[in-house]
């Protein structure tokens, strides 16, 4: 691990691996949360399974927490190293002429997603920890859907969530294909496929989250 993070190439490789893990997590997270749009009882069952399964709680969740923190810390380290290695901007780096807004501003879109995660962890994860471990309540398998639904009654929260999902989309639009490049997956035949997959992924995943947020906001009674 130390070897992997001691050189720039190693750091980029490790960053890409954490990104790929998070890309998979987002598919899983979206799939579970989409259930809440179709069936409250199926969502309650899925949440109960995720929330009380020891393998998920005590193995997968700590791995996920580590991946999220690692990805953000390593993102900052790479950004700082890039800046100090290049105190004067490349004459070649002529704004939009030879790079996209997304690729030049990964740190900005990343910071918005980080701010979102702060609120999101407070909204859901912290609430779960309190309910289960601090207040030590008995399991209540009926509560998950109502708790989620209630969070989306607040228009400001929904607006902030949606802004964050759009920025997440921009982050993914560059990040998806960049993570494949960083692990050396470059090939004249497969790179265009990876880029196309990245474009679809970066549209469909945030769109799915936006639909969930809007659905719960618009169906409040
Ligand atoms: C409308 C969209 C979303 C909804 C309704 C939602 C819902 C939830 C819920 C209910 C939990 C609590 C799980 C638990 O601890 O029992 C959770 C946790 C979490 N969410 Fe989201 N989420 C959304 C979008 C996102 C996005 C876009 C990201 C990442 C950028 C994200 C990252 C996380 C993480 C890292 C956790 C903590 C891990 C976990 O507890 O499983 N979520 N979310």
From TrEMBL:
<protein>
    <submittedName>
        <fullName>Succinate dehydrogenase cytochrome b subunit</fullName>
    </submittedName>
</protein>
<keyword id="KW-0472">Membrane</keyword>
<keyword id="KW-0812">Transmembrane</keyword>
<dbReference type="InterPro" id="IPR034804">
    <property type="entry name" value="SQR/QFR_C/D"/>
</dbReference>
<feature type="transmembrane region" description="Helical">
    <location>
        <begin position="197"/>
        <end position="218"/>
    </location>
</feature>
<feature type="transmembrane region" description="Helical">
    <location>
        <begin position="55"/>
        <end position="80"/>
    </location>
</feature>
<keyword id="KW-1133">Transmembrane helix</keyword>
<feature type="transmembrane region" description="Helical">
    <location>
        <begin position="158"/>
        <end position="176"/>
    </location>
</feature>
<feature type="transmembrane region" description="Helical">
    <location>
        <begin position="101"/>
        <end position="122"/>
    </location>
</feature>
<dbReference type="InterPro" id="IPR011138">
    <property type="entry name" value="Cytochrome_b-558"/>
</dbReference>
């Amino acid at each position: 691990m130390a070897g992997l993070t001691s050189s720039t190439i190693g750091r980029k490789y490790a960053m890409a691996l954490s990104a790929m893990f998070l890309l998979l997590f987002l598919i899983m997270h979206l799939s579970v949360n989409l259930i809440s749009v179709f069936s409250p009882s199926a969502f309650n069952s899925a949440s109960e399974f995720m929330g009380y399964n020891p393998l998920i709680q005590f193995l997968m969740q700590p791995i996920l927490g580590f991946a999220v923190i690692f990805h953000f810390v390593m993102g900052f380290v790479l950004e700082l190293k890039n800046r100090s290695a290049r105190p004067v901007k490349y004459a070649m780096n002529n704004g939009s002429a030879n790079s996209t807004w997304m690729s030049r501003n990964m740190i900005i879109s990343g910071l918005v997603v980080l701010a979102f995660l702060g609120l999101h962890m407070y909204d859901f994860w912290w609430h779960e920890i309190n309910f289960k471990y601090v207040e030590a309540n008995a399991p209540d398998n009926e509560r998950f859907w109502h708790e989620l639904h209630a969070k989306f009654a607040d228009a400001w929260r929904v607006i902030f969530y949606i802004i964050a999902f759009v920025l997440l989309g921009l982050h993914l639009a560059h990040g998806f294909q960049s993570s494949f490049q960083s692990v050396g997956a470059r090939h004249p035949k497969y790179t265009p496929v990876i880029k196309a997959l990245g474009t679809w992924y970066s549209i469909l995943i945030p769109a799915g989250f936006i639909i969930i947020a809007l659905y719960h906001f618009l169906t409040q009674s």
